Here is the input.
Amino acid sequence: MLAIDRLWRPARFLLLGASALLTGCATTSAPPVESDPWEGFNRAVYGFNKTADETLIKPIATGYQAITPDFLDRGITNFFNNLDDVVVLANQILQGKPQEAVSDFSRLVWNSTVGLLGFIDVATHLDLPKHNEDFGQTLGRWGYTPGPYLVLPILGPHTARDAIGLIPDWFLFDPLNYTDLSFRQRLAVAAVKYIDIRADLLSASTIVDTAALDEYTFIRDAYLQRREYLIYDGNPPEEEFDEELFEDELDELDEEESPEDEDEAAAG
Here is the structure.
């Protein structure tokens, strides 16, 4: 209980501040927010992250992938996916998705027992697919708008809403916080987790490096579209067609057409 209380105290104040920040964004009728008003700051952080990745993180991930057998690499990924299922389950409950929550709970039980703490993904073979939920999506589910796009040091692309959502996911839902591991040990486990994730994304980063004219814009747009897809469970709302705006644009085009053009068209 003392360990949980130590974790809850800082999280409590962070959550209070987060609630105040999000109060103004809690209605879906609020005017749209510019997606990237902090672009200058974001590009600077993106540049820092890219340098850190190229000089440190990517070489470590490449070495990790080279020395780790495929079966062990897969097992480590499965282990962390199993821990993540606790976070997913908590957010499924908060989002009011009982059917998905039952599926995720069953998945967690099967993988933690028969799957040897998650190193073997038994649940997927039992038709219990892995879901992707976090507290940022939970906030979106209940009407909080994304807020501005934000690039965090090392952690990469987020929105203001998703950045705030990291607080409960890390401090309240992460099962490692309720173990006897010291802070340094939890930090070491987190480092292994993110190196494993980075190793799995080596091929994807190569595609981005070669295909994108502006990597920053490419990653930003892909992230925002992906988040919208996840929040709406694969069925994002279609953009409404603004008929009045369309008619105004047509009127402007008609006004720009000169009399000489009309005479030439008539003569033709």
Summary: The two ends are 87 Å apart (CA to CA). Residues 39-236 form one domain. The beta strands are 149-152, 156-159.
